[in-house]
Predict the structure.
Amino acid sequence: MAEAIRVDVGDDEIGFYGVEKAITLAKPPWSEIPHTGKLERLILNLGAGKGRFDEVYGIPRSIGCIGNNHFIMRREKMSEAEIRKVLADFRRLGGEEVWITNYDEPEELVRAARLAKEMGVKEVHTTVLLEDVDSVGPIDGVKIIVETEYEPDKVIKAASIPWISGILVTVDQEKMKEVEELLSKLDGDGELELYLDVLYAPSIRETTVNLFELRRSRNPTNKNYHDCLAGTVAVTGDGYILPCPLMRNYIIGDARKGGLKYITRKKKLKELWKLTKDKIDACSTCPFKYMCHDPRAVEYQVTGQVEGVEYCPLLT
């Protein structure tokens, strides 16, 4: 059996057994990786999507950026030729990591993933809804993550699929105890990665977990770069370029007008990549500012401000 991995959440300790890699808890998997200051990854949405969480009513997900949601399409979705151009621009800029999600049909997800590999993208990740996994199947050279809401039968079903690389589980804060009990039974020593997508309450007053523990970050470049936004660009299904797929109204470019070619020169994007806690007034004097994961997309959705602090556990 692989060694147990422990994660503190408030007064409780969540135990994860049978996996060799660290659990990604309530933050994107790259948020703990040192950033280079260059373009590192592309999050490519393919359409409006058919996920449970809707742009109109809010998307309270801590890792919703790599999951399937439902967005408003403001114009015609990108063609395969336009997607090819986005990927080509990304490769020319030195990008090596693509996350493909928010598809309308499984077939378009498969085509886009294969296209990315054909164009030489080093790491291609796709997120597939559990109900669509049989329609996708294994794709050569592509890491497939299965997404499901937290229900024991669904998580066990996903874990039994031999060719997937990971599982993205959306979890209500109140059910963290159940997560502990279930995951302790997922025995084995494989390399299955678990992404626990904790759902934020409408405000911190309704939060039931210790957010400081949940958001604890150990990224050594936090003093210079935002731990989540740095190195990332997203392209929506209808071709708008965003700093994050959940920051829907924060448009920094258009894939149909100029593409990604010059996107890294945009002052607006560079400022977000370097949006450290020192530049947020309410956080600048906090002694924990370099230890706290900074979910700007969640704050942006709730407050309408990139520098919002609705979920700061120390300001309540």
The two ends are 42 Å apart (CA to CA). The chain has one domain: 5-303. Residues 1-21 have pLDDT under 50 and may be disordered. The longest strand covers residues 123-129.
